[in-house]
């Protein structure tokens, strides 16, 4: 259905659909649009916009995502979770459609976008900036887990710098979507790769699986946090298979030392695998500690601290009993160090290279679904709308 230039209204604003900007949904098959938002005073701003018909099989799941996002968004203790702006029902070409309005480029920017467009950090964030980001993401994740939910889609693309609140926020549930890649996004995880390759070993055991609907444990989110930390540390994760990514994760969890570049990490992983395939007497590394010492000795200046390497290793242990929980990571030495100031992060990482993010949205968040007249919309899982 062609919806470009279509105008949709709620009780306060009009939304003109401009262009597709990304995808969303459990298998990322639905389209996210950029819209021009025109308020009652004819002031214009821009937002991201999702739509799903009430008759769609995924409608109930999306309603649940919206309600979870609104519930957490109304909690003052959830300042590190990116809220949605609003959600409402509209009749679009004879179909009752749930519309979700999200913050967009003039308000927020994803760290994946920053990594791909800022030449100073295309090879990854400095250790001190990693700490600023991960401390806040971990706080958001703990809040999600305390509400008996899982995230299941933690990536650098779902971690945002919010210009209005001047902080790092994790997109969750209804605010999650995948941006179309920019011209500089080469060698990043594609959507399908991230869905099928980056999930924890206990979640899927076959590469062909594209997405999951649920977890059995919060620790599967911790694994994704570790993978996201690697993407933030190296700028991208170019791997050729899920098997290779799992091998790299195993290396990190055992050696606990991260080299300065992704290529060096791949090389050291391959060296350790080859060494273990040798007869015991011919092995270069008789123990994991020797491999760690070798990793430390090969680089004179470490860009990524040993403490950060330990943090990522705690996230990427394949053994669930040994993998850290969000509560345990809160007490980790990397987390407890001075995380630095958001002003420093903004001035170095965001402001100089992305001045557009300083323009703030004029659209204010709402805390509940808009309601239409009863005669326009039939009953739904949300209950009667009056």
From TrEMBL:
<feature type="domain" description="Protein kinase">
    <location>
        <begin position="15"/>
        <end position="335"/>
    </location>
</feature>
<dbReference type="InterPro" id="IPR000719">
    <property type="entry name" value="Prot_kinase_dom"/>
</dbReference>
<feature type="region of interest" description="Disordered">
    <location>
        <begin position="364"/>
        <end position="386"/>
    </location>
</feature>
<dbReference type="Pfam" id="PF00069">
    <property type="entry name" value="Pkinase"/>
</dbReference>
<dbReference type="GO" id="GO:0005524">
    <property type="term" value="F:ATP binding"/>
</dbReference>
<dbReference type="GO" id="GO:0004672">
    <property type="term" value="F:protein kinase activity"/>
</dbReference>
<comment type="similarity">
    <text>Belongs to the protein kinase superfamily. STE Ser/Thr protein kinase family. STE20 subfamily.</text>
</comment>
<dbReference type="InterPro" id="IPR011009">
    <property type="entry name" value="Kinase-like_dom_sf"/>
</dbReference>
<dbReference type="GO" id="GO:0043539">
    <property type="term" value="F:protein serine/threonine kinase activator activity"/>
</dbReference>
<protein>
    <recommendedName>
        <fullName>Protein kinase domain-containing protein</fullName>
    </recommendedName>
</protein>
<dbReference type="InterPro" id="IPR047173">
    <property type="entry name" value="STRAD_A/B-like"/>
</dbReference>
């Amino acid at each position: 259905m062609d919806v470009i230039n279509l105008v949709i209204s709620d009780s306060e604003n009009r939304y003109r659909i401009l262009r597709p900007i990304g995808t969303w949904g459990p298998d990322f098959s639905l389209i996210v649009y950029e819209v021009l938002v025109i308020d009652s005073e004819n002031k214009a701003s821009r937002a991201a916009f999702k739509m799903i018909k009430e008759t769609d099989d995924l409608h109930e799941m999306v309603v649940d995502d919206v309600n979870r996002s609104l519930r957490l968004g109304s909690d003052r203790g959830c300042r590190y979770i990116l809220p949605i702006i609003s959600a409402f029902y509209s009749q679009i070409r004879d179909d009752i459609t749930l519309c979700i309005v999200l913050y967009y480029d003039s308000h927020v920017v994803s760290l994946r976008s920053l990594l791909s467009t800022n030449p100073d950090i295309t090879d990854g964030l400095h250790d001190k900036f990693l700490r600023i980001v991960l401390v806040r993401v971990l706080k958001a994740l703990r809040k999600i887990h305390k509400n008996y939910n899982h995230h299941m889609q933690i990536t650098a693309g779902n971690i945002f710098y919010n210009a209005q609140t001047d902080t790092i926020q994790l997109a969750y549930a209804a605010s999650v979507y995948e941006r179309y890649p920019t011209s500089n996004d080469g060698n990043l995880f594609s959507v399908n790769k991230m869905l099928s390759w980056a999930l924890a070993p206990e979640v899927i055991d076959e590469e062909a699986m594209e997405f999951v609907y649920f977890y059995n444990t919060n620790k599967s989110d911790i694994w994704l946090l570790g993978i996201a930390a690697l993407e933030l540390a190296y700028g991208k994760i170019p791997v050729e298979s899920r098997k290779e990514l799992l091998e790299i994760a195993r290396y990190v969890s055992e050696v606990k030392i991260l080299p300065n570049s992704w290529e060096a990490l791949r090389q050291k992983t391959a060296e350790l695998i080859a060494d273990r395939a040798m007869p015991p007497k011919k092995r270069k590394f008789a123990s994991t500690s020797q491999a760690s010492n070798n990793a430390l000795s090969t680089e004179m200046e470490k860009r990524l601290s040993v403490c950060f390497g330990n943090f990522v290793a705690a996230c990427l242990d394949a053994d669930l009993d040994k993998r850290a929980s969000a509560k345990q990571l809160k007490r980790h030495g990397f987390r407890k160090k001075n995380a630095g100031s958001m002003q420093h992060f903004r001035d170095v990482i965001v402001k100089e290279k992305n001045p557009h993010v300083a323009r703030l949205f004029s659209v204010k968040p709402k805390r509940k679904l808009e309601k239409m007249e009863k005669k326009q919309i039939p009953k739904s899982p949300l209950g009667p709308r009056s």
